Amino acid sequence: MTREFTVPEGLKPKMSNIKSVYADGLCMGCGTCAGMCPSNAIMMIVDQKQGVYRPVIDSNKCTGCGYCYKICPGHSVDFEELNKFSTGRQPQSSILGSYLGCFNGCSMDNELCYVSSSGGLVTQLLICALEKGIIEGALVTSADKDNPLRPRSFIARTKEEIISAAGAKYCPVPVNVMLKEIRNAQPGLKFAVVGLPCQIQGIRKAELINDELKKKIVLHLGIFCTHGINFRGTRAALKRMGIKEKQVESLRYRFGDFPPGKTLIKFNGVEKVVDHLEFWNLLLTRRVNAIPDRCRLCIDQTAELADISVGSGWFAYKANKQINRSVGLIRNIVGKTFMQQISSANRIDVLPSNPEALELFEEKHRGDKKCRYRYLLFFLKLSGRKYPVYQSRFLKSKIKFDFKMSIEALKNYLRLFLFRKKHA
Q1: Quick count: other Cβ atoms within 10 Å of Cβ 121?
Q2: Which of 176, 201, 353, 410 could disulfide-pair with 31, CB 3.0 to 4.6 Å?
Q3: Residue 251: which domain range?
Q4: What's the pLDDT tens digit per position in 152-171?
């Protein structure tokens, strides 16, 4: 069952599909359009120049229904409506969004803790949900066995499959393409999804007009995200290490005690382990624009539309010198009930955290994306460049002029202007 959704005035394209979104440089590459298209007319392919995924529409299958455009989070996100939809209230924090509680935690399985990115919290949450019968499957992402530098999203239905997807993936992932598997699943089956803020936004927009999808997805786990990394960043990092892409047999972006963590690259039968921060710096070399353009226009750094949001181990380490512990935000009754349901399993070590301290940490080390966007918006409007339309009360209040923020916004705008190539 679906209900009507109104696209904001001024955003309606000449064509009733997401082709215009990519042409305007607003596509997030989340795959929501491909996963939800009623005609299966959209597929995601890699744009080699941009180093990201892009949607391609089969004109023979497309009916022009406009469904893909309605659920696309690239051109607009109404955070006020979607916060009410997902949490039942408006957020109390510009950075953290809406939350009922804050904690830090890790898996009590030492092996799982080590092979994961920051203590295996997300992986263990999914395993508990599966073993408790709360879900029948989880939408996760691992590396493609045939192409280890490309992601493979799938529905994990066993503990072993969930573990196979453990760890961060610093590359574009059109995870929401797999929403078609959830859509086509038998009625009554329940699923969890794991996604970055943009991916959770797409799922929530789809759920808003598709009741069947909403019933099947019973748990949304969101991942904190400062920005993504495109495939150009990975190529540049490997090149600086003297490794050719075709030589790579496997790549584990982050594992081991975190921080700092380790990165493991297997190529030509040789395993090379480097400090994770060293590899991260190689990804972000200034000679390559490794950050997708659309990431610079994002205002959600903590996945505020999830049921539970999880961030890396830096906060626990900086606050209490604890390693292998992720920070978590319980956002709504769904998240709170779930944590209560799995508490008796004794699989997760959970300690309360101070949300105010977390907000200060995020602001100091990553900034406030909403505040940053407001400064950037001035230059975007001045130049006539297309930009996403957001509805959020934190974008409506007056702000005092800040010279440092203005310079940062100008730099971001110049990066968008100088690096962005014309989209096909």
Answers
A1: 30
A2: 176
A3: 231-283
A4: 999 999 999 999 999 999 99
Whole-model pTM: value is 0.93
The span from the CA of 303 to the CA of 311, in Å, is 9
Contact 82, 209 (CB under 8 A): no
d(CA 264, CA 257): 13
CB-CB contact of 223 with 310 (8 Å): yes
| Side chain identity, residue 423 | H
Q: 279 is written with which tokens?
A: 């590899």
**E strands in 51-159:** 52-57, 76-78, 101-107, 137-143, 151-156
What whole-number distance in Å separates Cα of residue 323 and Cα of residue 8?
Answer: 45
Summarize pLDDT for 194-224 with one digit per residue, the tens. 999 999 999 999 999 999 999 999 999 999 9
Q: What is the DSSP letter of 7?
A: P
184 within some domain: yes
8 A C-beta contact, residue 338 and residue 132: no
Q: What is the spatial distance between Cα 61 and Cα 36, in angstroms, rounded to a whole number?
A: 14
